[in-house]
Amino acid sequence: MPRLNMRKTHKLGMAAVLGLEGYTRTRLPSELNELIKLRTSLLNGCQFCIAMHSEDLRRAGETQERLAALEQDDPGELFDPRERAALALTDAVTRLGEGGVSDDVWDRAGEFFSSTQLGDLVLAIATINVWNRIGIATRLEA
What we know:
Blueprint: H1 6-9, H2 11-27, H3 30-44, H4 47-59, H5 64-69, H6 81-94, H7 103-110, H8 115-137
GO molecular function: peroxiredoxin activity
Pfam families: CMD
Protein name: Carboxymuconolactone decarboxylase family protein
């Protein structure tokens, strides 16, 4: 049972998160955005978001093989170089350690994405991290 229904108890805050979600949906290709959401949710262990984004990707025609690869430490060769760069940035932003996001990861992503697109990626990654934290903290059920 969820601990708290944030949509009822914190409407204004949730509206702000929904606003950020709406923005990121218009800025990134849908499939890439969903890959980022699923990868982040897998890293964070948010069961609600894992179920939702896995289903969204399946409905969009994503293969089970690629979905399963997202569960690995290194998603691997099933993803094109642009996707791999975005997933590496996703990992680095989600797992922020003492060094933050390395120059190697940032520069690799910069080979495929403009400065504007990099900002959009960071916002998309940050947004799903917010959703994961809300889902996990409140024990949102899938």
